[in-house]
C-alpha cells in the first residue's frame, strides 16, 4: 500500500511538471505578443525590440522556461510587468485569503452535504429525498453570481444584516472577518452542498443495490442501521472522491464569487492580471491554482486507496 | 404509436418543465431580436429606471430597455455556447472513437495529453489562453471547444471501448469489416444515447462558463450583448435594491435549469435500462 501511495505521489509531481509546461507554453508560445500588447498603439519597431530585450523575450523559449521554473521552485516568481513589484509578495497574501474563504465554506458544506446525501439515500423516494433532489438540482443550475446577488439583495440591501462587499484587510479581528466573508461563504456552501449531496446520494444508492445490503435487510436489520453500518462505509472511498472533487471546484468557483463580492483573493487577482495581460502574474497564479488542484486530486486518490481494501491489494496492472 | 404515447405519459413533471424551458429558449435564440421592441443599443429612458408600461423589465445602467437587451442577449449567449459545444463534439467524438478502436500509441498519446489538460481547472486554462490571445468571439469559441473536447474525448473513448469488446463488434471484425464500417454501423449508433445526454450537460456547463467569463469581463466584449456581461454591467444596481442585474442572471438560470431537468430525467431512464441489460 505504501508503494502505491508513493507511486501516486510521484505521479502527482510529474503531473505538476506537465502543468508547468502547459502553463508556460500557453502563455509564451501562443501567438499573442506580450510586448506589442503592452505598448499597444504607440509601438514602434525600436521600442518593441527594446521592451522585448528588457523582458527577456529575445532569449529562446526553452531557456526562458528553465529559468522560470528554477526561479519558481526557489520561490522567485518574477516581477509584475505593470508595476515591477515581485509577484510572490503580491500573490501569497491573496492566496491565503482565497484559502481561508474556501476553508470556511468547506468546513460547513462538506459535513452538511454528506449528511444530507446519506439521509436522502436512506429515505429513498420519500418526501425529503424528492425535495432535496429538486432543491439540489436548482442550486447546481444557478450561476454563483445569481445566488450572490440575491443574497446581497435580501441579506444586505433590504435588511442590512451583513455587508454587501467582502472587504477584508490585514489585522482585522476574527469577528469582523467572519461577518465580512459570510455572504460569499453562503454562496459557496449552497453550490457545493448541492453538488456533494447529489453525488453522495447516487454513490450510497449504488452500494444499496449490492447483494450484501439485501442480505442485511433480510436478516431483519432496520433501515437506518443498514444504511449507516453496511452501505455508507463501503461508499466512503467514492464519497471522499466526490468531496475532493468539489473542494477542487471550490478553488475555481471562488473566482466568480470573489468577483461578486469584490473579495481580495487569488481569483480576482488572476482575473485582473488577465485583463491587464500581465504575464508573470498570470503564470504564477495559474501554477498555484494548478498545484492546489493536482494536490487535492492526489490526496483524494491516496485517501481512496487507504479506505478501499480492494484498492489496497490491487489485482492486475490496471489499479 | 401507443408505445410513443405511453412513453410520453411516463415523462415526469420536471421533465416537461425542462423541455418547455429548452423550447422557449430555442425560440428566443431563433427569434429574440425580432421580438425586441427596442434596439439593443437604443437609449430610451433613464438609467436604472423602474419597470413601467412598455418596459416590463425596466432599464439598464445606460437607460436601454432591459427586455430588448435580454432578448438580443439570447442569441449571443446561447449561440456561442452551442457553437463551442458542437465544435468540441466534432473534435472529441471522432478522436475518442478512433483512440478506442485503434489503441496503441495513438490512444496512449491522446489519452495522456487529455489527462494533462484535465489536470488543470478549465477556468484557469481558459484564463491563461485568453491572457495570451485576448478575448474575441472566435478565440472564445475555439478555446472553450478545445478545453471541453477533452471531456468529450474521454467519454466517447470509454463508451466506444465498451462497445468494441461486445460480441456483435467482435463478429463484425471477424467478418472483416473495415474501420469506417465499424465506426458507422457498430459504434456510432450505440454511443449516440450517452453522447446526447452528455451534449446536454456539456452545453449547460459551457453556457455557464461563457456567461461566467463575460461576468468577469473576459468573455464576450462590447458591442455584443450577452447575459453574463449584462449581469456585470448592472451589478451596481443591486446595491440600490434594484432588480436590474437579476433579469439577465435569471435568464441564464432558466436555461441551465431547463437543460439540467431534461438531462436528469433522460439519465434516470437510461440507467435503469442499462441495469437491465447487465
UniProtKB/TrEMBL annotation, chain A:
Residues 95-300 form the ABC transmembrane type-1 domain. It comes from Sagittula marina. It is a multi-pass membrane protein. It comes from the Bacteria. This is Peptide/nickel transport system permease protein. Keywords: Cell membrane, Membrane, Transmembrane, Transmembrane helix, Transport. It is found in: Cell membrane. The keyword Plastid does not apply. One of its GO terms (cellular component) is plasma membrane. The lineage of its organism: Bacteria, Pseudomonadati, Pseudomonadota, Alphaproteobacteria, Rhodobacterales.
From TrEMBL, chain B:
Keywords: Cell membrane, Membrane, Transmembrane, Transmembrane helix, Transport. It comes from Sagittula marina. The chain crosses the membrane at residues 13-31, 78-100, 120-147, 199-220, 240-263. This is Peptide/nickel transport system permease protein. It is found in: Cell membrane. Pfam families: BPD_transp_1 (PF00528). PANTHER family: OLIGOPEPTIDE TRANSPORT SYSTEM PERMEASE PROTEIN APPC, PEPTIDE ABC TRANSPORTER PERMEASE PROTEIN. Belongs to the binding-protein-dependent transport system permease family. It is a multi-pass membrane protein. One of its GO terms (cellular component) is plasma membrane. Its main location: membrane. One of its GO terms (biological process) is transmembrane transport. InterPro entries: BP-dependent_transpt_permease, MetI-like, MetI-like_sf. Residues 74-267 form the ABC transmembrane type-1 domain.
